[in-house]
Give the backbone structure.
Amino acid sequence: MQPKPHIIHLPVYQPGKPIETVKRELGLTEVIKLASNENPHGCSPAVKEAIVREMENTALYPDGGAFALSEALAAHLGVKPDQLIFGAGADEVIQMIARAYLMPGDETVMAAQTFPQYRFSAMAENAAVVEVPLKDGVHDLDAMLERITERTKIVWVCNPNNPTGTFVTREALVRFLGAVPQNVLVVLDEAYFEYAVDPEYPDGISLLPDYPNLVVLRTFSKIYGLASLRIGYGVAHADIIRNVNQVRQPFNTSRFAQTAAIAALGDTDFVRRCREANRKGLRQLEEAFARMGLKTFPSQANFIFVDVRRDAKDVFERLLRRGIIVRAGFPGFPTGLRITVGAPEQNEKLIAALEAVLHEAKVQV
Ligand SMILES: *Cc1c(COP(=O)(O)O)cnc(C)c1O
């Protein structure tokens, strides 16, 4: 049996190693995972209560249209409910956008070092992926603009960018949006929106009224701490949302995810505390890396990208043996590691382990 030719060479996504796997494979009892940008503080206690209450209804299908969550989120964001679409994570929203807009032979423009799901989703539709290198770790919007042709359907901008943590300013983004043809969709992925604090960092949703071709993506997986429940969303003009809904599975988000998301939205204090703790953690890591003479990109997210000046995969393996999971293997960054900001004591352990590892591993650069 042969699958469609264009999916034969698609890689199967390799996620950050699960803690349980690392414990089993290496015989470790304590493992710290700083690989998938999960919230080290868990989720709001209100979420746990909501999930327990919802257990009554486990036998019932969820509301496919996510009515209650749409109402709550629309009020929270200041948009209309018909401007929202939910997915099993923002990942699924990315997949649905590609499914709805990309035909074989269409082109889609993205950064060369960015979130891999844009690329995979486009390849599954047999669209041509046009990759534009970052400039000093930041999206090169001018170069991306130049690569737009008559065949371009979607441009992806990850802000802050994963894996670098860098961001494009409001000014740069507005200039870009003004120059992109109206018939090209701009997908602005704001998975880490709630972590960003820089005054120049743009709120994509505030730009929606001016740009009917803009889609903003956000998620409950990161600061809200609901990664296991799989719920994220897209915000756009109602016409775009209707088209993406046309390719959505009827019950793509679960009752637990919907009810948890509503509860999570209500606990603004939890979000604020996580954002503040994250900024402290970032400073802790930045200062330690600077002390070790390692360069980092300035981050507005809950992770930091550091140049360890040695083969990053080797450093990754050595950290793993010490019970710390990080992320390496980013195209174009053979010496780069992405490290999630953990709780203070996790960060301390990472710093100590990295210092030890850097003494063992030979300097290459
Ligand atoms: C984590 C992440 C997402 C989506 O995560 P989900 O768990 O699928 O909501 C989307 N974009 C970026 C850049 C991410 O880092």
User: Anything to note?
Assistant: The pocket of pyridoxal-5'-phosphate is lined by residues 37, 89-91, 115, 158, 162, 189, 191, 219, 221-222, 227, 232 (CB under 6 Å).
